[in-house]
Design brief:
It is globular, with a radius of gyration of 17 Å. The chain is mainly β and 106 residues long. The protein is built from 1 helix and 6 strands; from the N terminus they run ββαββββ. About 8% of the residues have low confidence. β3 and β4 form a beta hairpin.
């Protein structure tokens, strides 16, 4: 039998800016802004920027650029800009095994 990941928590992401936070324990923890954007991309959400407020100003990371790939702090708030809407699951856990059909029945 194969285990299929099942989202245990989801967030609706809108086209435009979204306020989110990343939790601390793996598997939902991400370490950098680029890694965070990649997590959205892997789920079909076209995230292009992640922004945080720091020392009286905005710090912006743009997808694919090496510059300003800041560390993500667990439970801190970040604005993520997306070009499309979708459902984002920051954490997935294995569900019950998917039954394998008996030979000749599937």
């Amino acid at each position: 039998p194969t285990q299929t990941p099942t989202p245990i928590l989801t967030h609706e992401i809108v086209a435009g800016w979204n306020l989110i936070a990343f939790c601390a324990p793996p598997p939902c923890y991400v370490s950098t802004a680029e890694e965070a954007i990649g997590r959205f991309q892997s789920q079909g959400i076209d995230a292009t920027q992640i922004v945080r407020w720091r020392a009286g100003g905005w710090e912006v990371h743009v997808r694919g650029l090496v510059a300003n790939d800041f560390a993500i702090e667990p439970w801190a708030g970040y604005f993520v800009r997306s070009r499309n809407a979708g459902t984002w699951a920051p954490v997935e856990s294995p569900s019950a095994p998917t039954p394998t059909p008996a030979p000749g029945t599937g």
